[in-house]
TrEMBL record:
Pfam families: Ras. This is small monomeric GTPase. The keyword Ribonucleoprotein does not apply. Its EC number is 3.6.5.2. Belongs to the small GTPase superfamily. Ras family. Keywords: Hydrolase. It catalyses: GTP + H2O = GDP + phosphate + H(+). InterPro entries: P-loop_NTPase, Ras-related_GTPase, Small_GTP-bd, Small_GTPase. SUPFAM superfamilies: P-loop containing nucleoside triphosphate hydrolases. PANTHER family: RAS-LIKE FAMILY MEMBER 11.
Length: 237
């Protein structure tokens, strides 16, 4: 970890939120960070959110990348996975294809884990409030989580689901502990070539919080600049 990148001495945990288009990744991320639901929030770009949260009475700087389904040019965003310390895989219980995507993503992550890099993962079945439109049973989600060996929860981002907050915090805690043991991908960590364009509605900033929304292309540029000029530049909305 480069000290010049850090705005504080608290540990930093990087989380990737991954899933098919329209499963609720942006809504989930904003819900966790702000406790608010932005139903009309539309996204056509990857965004990185940064906020300091308290875990086990200690501050932790959390970075969450919400990978937009629209900008993904391949089925599995390997560079973002390399960047991440932990992953949330999301599908919608109303969308069978999104469950298949989550299954493949978990299998890919498992291969990475088998290769020696420990990446804590949590599986979430979103839109539990739409049970009447369900095409994926809870049992299928539970079995998938058990097969991969990761926690599984059905949640509703639209509702104030406490399971969602608990799932995030368990993942953050596990990831933080994992990082304490060893940092993975120390050489290959990079943002990669991530596409950026403006979101139509920036997410709300929580009262007393420090959410910073970064276009990842800007972050990538800033890293290049840092390497060349020891210069920090982070775009915020
Ligand atoms: N009913 C219901 N709708 C939800 C829930 N979570 C998200 N949505 C809706 O699902 C749609 C997609 O949500 P997004 O957060 O934009 O989904 P996304 O996965 O980030 O989509 P992309 O960025 O396009 O990949 C929006 O209309 C949300 O309001 C939920 O728990 N219940």
């Amino acid at each position: 970890m480069k000290t010049e990148e850090r705005s504080s001495n608290s540990p930093r945990v990087r989380i990737l939120v991954l899933g098919m288009i329209n499963v609720g990744k942006s809504a989930l991320t904003v819900r966790y960070l702000t406790r608010r639901y932005i139903g009309e929030y539309r996204s056509n770009t990857d965004l990185l959110y940064r906020q300091t949260v308290t875990i086990n009475n200690a501050p932790v700087e959390v970075e969450i990348i919400d990978v937009s389904g629209e900008t993904r040019d391949s089925s599995f965003p390997s560079e973002q996975v390399q960047w991440a310390d932990g992953c949330v895989i999301v599908y919608s219980i109303t969308d069978r294809l999104s469950f298949q995507y989550a299954t493949e993503a978990l299998d890919n992550l498992n291969k990475i884990r088998a290769g020696g890099a420990s990446v804590p993962v949590t599986l979430l079945g979103n839109k539990a409030d739409l049970a009447h439109l369900r095409t994926v049973t809870e049992d299928e989600g539970r079995k998938l989580g058990a097969r991969i060996g990761c926690p599984f929860h059905e949640v509703s981002v639209a509702e104030n689901s406490t399971d969602l907050y608990a799932a995030f915090e368990t993942l953050l805690n596990e990831t933080k502990n994992q990082l304490g043991k060893s940092r993975k991908f120390s050489v290959t960590k990079m943002i990669g070539t991530l596409i950026s364009s403006a979101k139509s509605h920036p997410p709300p900033v929580p009262q007393g919080g420090t959410v910073v929304v970064c276009h990842k292309s800007d972050l990538h540029k800033s890293r290049v600049l840092k390497r060349r000029q020891n210069f920090t530049a982070t775009a915020s909305l």
